[in-house]
Amino acid sequence: MTRVFNFGAGPAVLPEAVLQQAAAEMLDWRGSGMSVMEMSHRGKEFMSIIAQAEADLRELMAVPANYKVLFMQGGAIGENAIIPLNLLGKNPKADYIDTGSWSGKSIKEASRYGDVHVAASSCRPEAKQGKYTTIPAVADWRVRKDAAYLHICGNETIDGVEYLQWPDMDALGLKGVPLFVDVSSHILSRPMDVSQFGLMYGGAQKNIGPAGLAVVIIREDLLEQAQAGCPSAFHYKTVAENGSMYNTPPTYSIYIAGLVFQWLKAQGGVAAMEAKNRAKAALLYDALDASGFYVNHVARECRSLMNVPFFLRDESLNDAFLEGAKARGFLQLKGHKSVGGMRASIYNAMSLEGVQALVGYLKEFEKSHG
Ligand SMILES: *Cc1c(COP(=O)(O)O)cnc(C)c1O
After folding, report:
1. Could you give phi then psi for residue 311, rounded to 5 degrees?
2. Is the minimum distance from the CB of 181 to ligand 1 under 6 angstroms?
3. What's this protein's function (predicted)?
């Protein structure tokens, strides 16, 4: 068996220990005589799996008691519609901050369900490389004070722009507007104060587990604002009242997520992950900055700890770079097709050794081609 260094943006690398445990339990989950995939979601075995997963996620993120944790389907793109369907029933106004490809998608989708206003944007449409490299200054945000919510994307997976500091809604005079955040690609990568948000959501396939699962953390008082046409399977109140089992949940994905939560606890929790993630990111950004050969365009104060896009200054070398990477077992380094260049995703499950090896390759390639 050979395992590569997988720098893919998602579905992404998972902790090897988790995959090994899942393999060992594949045919017979802890004496049940069944695979988790074969279990009734209402049987006592699976009920214990989902309860433990929720408890561990609550512990890892210190989720306050007045928040519901929902395990849903449809991924984060599904949530782009599910959120307005659930929140714009009484008040149609929703404000969004545009910091990259994913917030752009959220804005476009939400516009189908409500009165959507882009309160700030850092888009530079004219830029050849790096259309999004900053977060607009919070003082310049034009948020409607009567909006049902303000939506941000916490980490722009494609553009590599991350909120390393959250906006202070009180200081903005927006105490009454709940802040919603897409945390698909940085959930559990560092401590996040859930109480600052009305809603946090993300697809699982970056930092949690297999695709097919979306995690939603929502403040209870926001469960009563759905539009009449909101589908039952995506109706937060219905999902909450049924313990994420109104419909059959993605059971196997929840099981793997639970194993990842256990693994994170064994690593020391999210504060310990943050220290590791900062060390990995610093190593990689320092290597890029120190060379005249590679470039990352993102402003330092919002460089993502999870997704590091970069360009070779001589883009005619792109193919040679990727071929050499592949030959050394570094996979999925090609940047998203919409931005080009390269991207190294260095999620929780990417080891420091993996990043060190990549940095070694960056230097080696520069030496032989620079
Ligand atoms: C990957 C990603 C999505 C899309 O997730 P799907 O599971 O494909 O719906 C949305 N937002 C962000 C920030 C992402 O990284």
Report:
1. -120, 145
2. no
3. Catalyzes the reversible conversion of 3-phosphohydroxypyruvate to phosphoserine and of 3-hydroxy-2-oxo-4-phosphonooxybutanoate to phosphohydroxythreonine.
